């Protein structure tokens, strides 16, 4: 089955500061979620000073007892944002850092499609200049991008970098092209997840990508009929 057309992206520092300031200026409602607690808690922004955002809530006593980070959801217009941050009490007032990382919920251009179980594949990222090549596994693919898992990352790659990728899925021909790293995550087991958008790609390579995606769509449609 294809994934949801929505995805989460961590904002760059400047964008995060802008989003936080808009949240503060508009005194946005905050929806607070604690891990392993089915209830949500509402709060209002009271003020911001000394890099702290102070909140007021009828659930103050409950939130004062939380030692772990909480998830805070807020809206700017129709846009949805999340903050994962500890909440602390200063001078008997609840607050969190205005430098906390902010995640935005975005809608992707196209749906991603998981590589079906049992399909043979080969993939890698590499650098011609540094003569480094890391094997990868294709997690999912769309017409405009792909997601890799790299078990052992030795190539220095950061979000925003352009890297050379290659992959071959099932019976289709190999694709070799440049891609921009849009998302990077290190898993607890040490492997890395890269979400990448295809860059300048030749028509022949684009056709191969389209064939892989179409194969997966047809495969999933057939499974649903059985």
Which descriptor suits the 3D outline?
Answer: elongated
What's the Cα radius of gyration? 21 Å
Secondary structure: number of strands: 16
Spatial order of strands in the largest sheet: 1-9-6-5-2-3-4-8-7
* Major β-sheet annotation: 9 strands, antiparallel
Q: What is the highest CATH level, the class of the largest domain?
A: Mainly Beta
Instruction: Please state the average pLDDT score.
Output: 88
Query: Any idea what the CATH superfamily of the largest domain is called?
Result: predicted glycosyltransferase like domains
Strand content: over 45%
Detailed description of the structure:
- The chain has 226 residues and is α+β, with helices and mostly antiparallel strands.
- It folds into 2 domains: 6-107, Pnp Oxidase, Chain A (Roll); 113-225, predicted glycosyltransferase like domains (Thrombin, subunit H).
- Helix content is 18%, strand content 46%.
- It contains 3 helices and 16 strands.
- The chain has a 9-stranded antiparallel β-sheet. A 6-stranded antiparallel β-barrel has the order 11-12-13-16-15-14.
- β2 and β3 form a beta hairpin.
- The model has no long low-confidence stretch (mean pLDDT 88).
Summed up:
The protein is 18% helix and 46% strand. With 226 residues, it is of the alpha+beta class.
Features:
single chain; 226 residues; Pnp Oxidase, Chain A; Thrombin, subunit H; nine-stranded antiparallel β-sheet
């Amino acid at each position: 089955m294809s994934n949801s057309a929505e995805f989460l992206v961590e904002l760059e520092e400047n964008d995060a500061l802008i989003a936080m300031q808009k949240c503060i200026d508009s005194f946005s409602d905050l929806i607070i979620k604690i891990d392993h607690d089915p209830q949500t808690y509402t709060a209002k922004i009271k003020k911001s000073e000394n890099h702290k955002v102070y909140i007021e809530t009828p659930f103050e006593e409950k939130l004062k007892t939380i030692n772990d980070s909480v998830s805070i959801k807020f809206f700017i217009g129709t846009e949805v944002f999340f903050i994962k941050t500890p909440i602390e009490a200063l001078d008997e007032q609840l607050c969190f850092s205005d430098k906390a990382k902010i995640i935005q919920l975005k809608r992707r251009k196209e749906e991603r499609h998981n590589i079906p179980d049992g399909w043979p594949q080969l993939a890698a990222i590499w650098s011609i200049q540094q003569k480094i090549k890391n094997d990868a596994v294709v997690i999912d693919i769309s017409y405009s991008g792909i997601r890799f898992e790299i078990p052992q990352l030795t190539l220095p790659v950061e979000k925003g970098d352009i890297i050379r990728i290659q992959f071959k899925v099932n019976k289709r021909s190999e694709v070799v092209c440049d891609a921009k790293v849009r998302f990077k995550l290190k898993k607890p087991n040490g492997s890395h997840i890269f979400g990448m958008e295809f860059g300048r790609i030749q028509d022949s390579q684009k056709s191969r990508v389209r064939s892989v995606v179409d194969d997966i769509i047809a495969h999933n449609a057939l499974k649903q009929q059985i």
